[in-house]
């Protein structure tokens, strides 16, 4: 049962100190759930992928998922849907409630003092920090679990190519019939899934 208190404490810290949204808090989430041994690094990267493909913020989605799988992975006596749902509810509430209360108060405070030089200065310092945290999350995910989980050289290069193509499709507009379009991220995810199935799924 101790795992539930650990989940609550871990996600309370993530909810309070996870500045910059889901991507920015990934390194904090990884440190909180992988280092204690609740889940493996490979499972963590899978959770990130699943959280991206499901509706809702990545921080909340990952909390729900990790809350479900962590109790059973730590203690086999806690295997089962009921124990997993309890962990999901506790982790999700722990990450949501602090953020909700902080945003509720800070939005009221910022609205009252929006013209304050001190508030503007604080945000001027926070913006580049958030960019740095997101960049840190991107670098953290560039690991063997994502690009070469099976230790096969050709798969490494194929995965790098998929990553590069996905980046180009998301970042650079495509010219069709004289008009420029940016491909929707959902379509890129679907195409990557189809490519993965064709490359790795068909034997």
Descriptive tags:
flat; 203 residues; 76% helix
Describe the structure.
It is a single chain. This protein is mostly helical and 203 residues long. The chain is 76% helix and 3% strand. It has 10 helices and 2 strands, in the order αααααααααββα. The protein has helices at 2-17, 21-24, 26-33, 41-53, 58-74, 81-112, 117-140, 144-147, 153-171, 185-201; strands at residues 174-176, 179-181. Strands 1-2 form a two-stranded antiparallel ribbon. Strand 1 (174-176) and strand 2 (179-181) form a beta hairpin. It is flat. It starts with a helix and ends with a helix.
Low-confidence regions: none
Helix tally? 10
- Shape by Cα distribution: flat
**Rg over C-alpha atoms, rounded to the nearest angstrom:** 20 Å
Average pLDDT taken over every residue: 81
Question: How do the helices and strands line up, and which of them pair or pack?
Answer:
Blueprint: H1 2-17, H2 21-24, H3 26-33, H4 41-53, H5 58-74, H6 81-112, H7 117-140, H8 144-147, H9 153-171, E1 174-176, E2 179-181, H10 185-201
Antiparallel strand pairs: 1-2
Helix pairs in contact: 1-5, 1-6, 4-5, 5-6, 9-10
Could you provide a short overview of the structure?
It contains ten helices and two strands; from the N terminus they run αααααααααββα.
């Amino acid at each position: 049962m101790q795992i539930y208190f650990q989940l609550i404490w871990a996600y309370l810290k993530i909810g309070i100190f996870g500045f910059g949204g889901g991507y920015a808090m990934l390194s904090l989430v990884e440190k909180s759930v992988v280092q204690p041994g609740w889940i493996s690094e490979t499972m963590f990267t899978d959770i990130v992928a699943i959280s991206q493909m499901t509706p809702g913020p990545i921080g909340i989605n990952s909390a729900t998922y990790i809350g479900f799988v962590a109790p059973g992975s730590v203690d086999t006596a806690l295997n089962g849907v009921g124990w997993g749902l309890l962990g999901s509810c506790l982790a999700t509430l722990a990450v949501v409630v602090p953020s909700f209360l902080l945003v509720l108060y800070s939005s009221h405070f910022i609205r009252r003092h929006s013209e304050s030089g001190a508030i503007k200065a604080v945000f001027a310092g926070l913006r580049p920090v958030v960019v740095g945290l997101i960049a840190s999350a991107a670098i953290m995910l560039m690991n063997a679990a994502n690009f070469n989980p099976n230790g096969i050289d050709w798969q490494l290069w194929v995965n790098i190519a998929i990553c590069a193509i996905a980046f180009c499709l998301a970042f650079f507009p495509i010219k069709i019939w004289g008009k420029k379009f940016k491909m929707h991220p959902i379509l890129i995810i679907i195409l990557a899934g189809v490519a993965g199935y064709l490359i790795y799924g068909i034997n």
